[in-house]
Amino acid sequence: MKELALKYGCNPNQKPSRIFMTEGELPIEVLNGRPGYINFLDALNSWQLVSELKAATGVPAAASFKHVSPAGAAIGLPLSDTLSKIYFTDDVEIPLTPLACAYARARGADRMCSYGDFVALSDTCDAATATLIKREVSDGVIAPDYTPEALQILQNKRKGTYNVIKIDPNYRPAPIECKQVFGISFEQGRNNVRLDDPDLFTNRPTQNKKIPQAAMRDLVIALITLKYTQSNSVCYAKDGQAIGIGAGQQSRIHCTRLAGNKADIWWLRQSPRVMNLPFKPGIRRADRDNTIDVYISDECEDVLREGTWQNFFTEKPEPFTPEEKKAWIARNTGVALGSDAFFPFGDNIERAHKSGVQYIAQAGGSIRDDNVIETCDKYNIAMAMTGVRLFHH
Question: Which residues of 102-122 are buried (b: 16+ CB within 10 A; e: fewer)?
């Protein structure tokens, strides 16, 4: 098949729409549903991300994509009891495979942004992973293959309309890529930089030069995630997964703040205060996510006011005070941070430090590198300057 007609483009008024190959056959097969233009943009970007994560780490990987940027990306490390609870997998009756753990991590990092996502899996989708996917609000999934049981589970999702795409894992695109904007063709070499190359991390200008193996793994995960995130972008990573992604911001500090706030929310969800919220039985996961998000925020009164809390809780929770939140966030340590370009000022490091960042990988090359290095030294942060920019548009 050389081309596939689509219902419409990014918006319903954008017709006709299709995906096609100028040479050769399409490397994808639609096994179920009718994916759209944006679905394929998410699917093909996210497939590249998980493929690179698997190649770099040797561990199955997953990503959760929304509007051509990842909401989460992870490799399949086992889940702790805490993560299993906040990712809503503690009631799953079948054992979780490494791929299922990767998906749970990717989907659970930012559950608000992952609502209605497109999923990418580096390995053959198994029944455990399909079971987790079926429970969530999602548009579709792309993977190199599906077990018969997994495919049946996914084909029954969303009244039989769930989008299931199979991609040829051996497909390699041409070294030159092109696209059109306003009728004008753009052409460039594909970004084939290897981000698991140890040589990228040898330039460590900070006083602290120690980056443990686990932190190096997380820095690689952050950089590969950024390679497929709309720029400007910054990614916080810990324990084999992205925990906060700031995408598409014009200012680098806004990226760092946005991603840091998401990382803080991920960490706050693990606090006893949040994990012990007295939710009423039968509350849907999406409603629980929304309620937790508001409870953690400065607008907590929106769910704690009289006449409202009764809709969610069996008893009224105590507010999570700013002082309590700050104290809990201060307990988060060992966080890795990647940036798709250089940090222009030390204010990015100041913000990153507040969210437990101890390891950084960024391009370097700012006229204020000295200020950035000085700020890292202030907090004993180890930083590598890779010399590699990862803009993606």
Answer: bbbbbbbbbbebbbebbbbbb
